[in-house]
Amino acid sequence: xxxxxxxxxxxxxxxxxxxxxxxxxxxPRHGVMPVIVTFDAAxxxxxxxxxxxxxxxxxxxxxxxxLHETIAAERIDVVHAHGHVTAALLPRLAVPVVTxxxxxxxxxxxxxxAIATGLRRSAAITAVSDDLARRFRWAGRPIxxxxxxxxxxxxxxxxxxxxxGFTLGIAARLHPVKRHGDLIAALRLLxxxxxxxxxxIAGDGPTGDAIREAGAGLDVTLLGAVDDVAGFLxxxxxxxxxxxxxxxxxxxxxxxxxxxxxxxSAVGGIxxxxxxxxxxxxxxxxxxxxxxxxxLATSSDLxxxxxxxxxxxxxxxxLDRQAAAYRAVYRDVVPHRD
Length: 338
Fold this sequence. Notes:
Number of domains: 2
Radius of gyration: 20 Å
CATH topology of the largest domain: Rossmann fold
Strand order of the largest sheet: 3-2-1-4-5-6-7
Distance between the termini: 6 Å
Shape: globular
CATH class of the largest domain: Alpha Beta
CATH architecture of the largest domain: 3-Layer(aba) Sandwich
Number of strands: 13
């Protein structure tokens, strides 16, 4: 049994946090004993993992000592750092570190020296997309790609509960990088043409009030954090993700597994994931979004074809494949453990 400490800022609802929760859920059948270590306070809804959580405070003068003590007390074999900033914050440890890259640097250039040190200290580096692996080539280290996995059977069984209208949805943290405002602007353009569509928004975060204000007068509903993601997807006729940048979005994989047609910005790992099984648009372009949404809304054949293609395209993104891939990485850096 390999004992792994997953280290990340918090467990607030997001793609990275759901990957960690899923790794913990599948860990026992792959010979892994997980513990989660967080170092920042979460705001809003959190993912409830099937593992113990140790909450530290990175701003405390005792952070490094507390982390060392936790690793010793839990008899940790491998520390799994989720994110390049997480790797940058870790002190030098007595056990190997595996770092997973979940997002691009973004505004993290000020962290670059510390990030470079963290990556250099890592025994292995993985990324959730080929795009991220390319973006971090500057680190001069081999980077293997492990795309996220999801509970495929759960989403394959999603039942449609539409009411005859056309309903779009997005499941994403309410954050500027997700560009909810562009989606609402696209709906307003369509509304001016007499095309009124419903938008359901799942998620919470700092831009909730701004999104609610932007959607005034449109059929836009903010649902907050949604526990039953499969049930949410069952209410939709199409899924939209107009982000500024992404790794390989878990929410997008889930929507594709549910057979939903996709409209998404052509950024990060999205083009490789979606391919021709969705409509890809230029980021920050409400007009391009509006045109793609109109195509979906006015053609049931297009929706059906894209939905079927999307489901087939993510057929290999299962949880056990993801868990087995990470266990192989752990075994490589701790070869003496069974």
